[in-house]
Design brief:
alpha+beta, OB fold (Dihydrolipoamide Acetyltransferase, E2P), 2 domains, 3 helices
Length: about 230
């Protein structure tokens, strides 16, 4: 996927989950943050950030914060991007052979999974999670407790028991990482649910991405350590 009208700025502060103050060409501006997660290790004062301009004159903010530099690493932090690049990846034939149907946002019992895919005569439910938390080359999810994420894992396990092929795909919004693991320190219940899902036949996939200020593309599988 590609962005348009990208500029570079300097992060100043984040008054709440939805907005940030960024210095652009020497002027402080209020911008929209396209990730409501904590991202405390990313959005630090004076960090270089990348913003996409909006063409909507009705918006209160003219820019969306989509990426940030963390040392020498560029991290995409647009929470809508993982689903977009994953769908592009599926449509390009890089996930499953002989895909005949791709349906986003499909309901199953009390959950709504990101994708329902029919391929090679099988039915697949897929939940996509974006990953931006990294330390020492290890990426982890989640960066904050997610009861919704635990619910999705339990529902995927139930769907698997009913004969569906089920997947959790962690789209790592950076490259050059060593491995993925659940963030047991932040939310042990999610890690436990992920291990139970894997033991029950839910397939766990982690993929890194090639990141530039104006693009995001799925790259290679990353080892998953449960």
């Amino acid at each position: 996927m590609r962005y348009k009208n990208i500029i570079r700025g300097k992060f100043l502060d984040r008054p709440n989950r939805f907005i940030a103050h960024v210095e652009i060409d020497g002027q402080q501006q209020t911008v929209h943050v396209k990730n409501t997660g904590r991202c405390r290790e990313l959005l630090v004062p004076e960090a270089a950030v990348y913003l996409e301009g909006s063409n909507d004159p009705k918006r209160k903010t003219a820019w969306d914060l989509v990426a940030v530099e963390k040392g020498e690493r560029l991290i995409n932090m647009d929470s809508q991007a993982p689903n977009k690049v994953f769908e592009e990846w599926v449509r390009a034939g890089k996930f499953l052979p002989e895909v005949t149907l791709i349906r986003p946002e499909t309901r199953y019992r009390d959950s709504r999974f990101d994708f329902y895919v029919e391929a090679d005569g099988k039915r697949h439910f897929i939940e996509v999670k974006g990953v931006t938390l990294e330390a020492g080359g290890v990426v982890r999810f989640p960066d904050a407790p997610t009861e919704r994420g635990v619910k999705h894992l339990r529902e995927l396990l139930r769907a698997r028991e009913e004969g569906y092929e089920c997947w959790v795909c962690f789209v790592i919004q950076m490259n050059g990482v060593e491995c993925f693991e659940p963030n047991d320190r932040t939310h042990p219940e999610f890690g436990q649910a992920l291990r139970q899902a894997a033991a029950g036949g839910v397939q766990i996939l982690a993929l890194d991405c090639s990141v530039t200020p104006d693009s995001l593309v799925i790259g290679d599988p990353v080892p998953v350590k449960l």
